[in-house]
Amino acid sequence: MVVTAVLIEAARRSRRTFLGFLPFAIGLAVATVYGRYHYAIDVISGIALAFLVVPLARWFVTTGDATLTPAAPP
């Protein structure tokens, strides 16, 4: 999910950076399944979750909601 989130932001900011990260991201996803660290559905779910979370996080940041700021230490 993290590498997909990075790709989404890289695509948004710089096509050159996106294209530079893309082979590494694909390789990481393939190696994760090939090395039997996760099932293919885990990788697919992570990609889908990243496409859901990144816009949501961007919305939270741009709204400036005061309820999302950390509480002051006691």
Q: How is this structure best described in words?
A:
- The structure is a single chain.
- By secondary structure, the protein is an all-alpha fold.
- It has helices at 2-13, 15-34, 40-63.
State the main characteristics.
about 70 residues; mainly alpha
What's a concise summary of this model?
The chain is mainly alpha-helical. The chain has 3 helices and no strands. Helix content is 76%, strand content 0%.
What oligomeric arrangement do these chains adopt? single chain
Number of strands: 0
Number of helices in the DSSP assignment? 3
Q: Choose one word for the global shape.
A: extended
Structural class: mainly alpha
Q: From the alpha carbons, calculate the radius of gyration and give it in angstroms.
A: 16 Å
Note the main sheet.
none
Average predicted confidence as pLDDT: 89
Unreliable segments of 5+ consecutive residues: none
Q: Give the topology string: H per helix, E per strand.
A: HHH
| N-C termini distance | 34 Å
**What percent strand?**
under 5%
Helix content, binned percent = over 70%
What's the arrangement of secondary structure elements?
Elements: H1 2-13, H2 15-34, H3 40-63
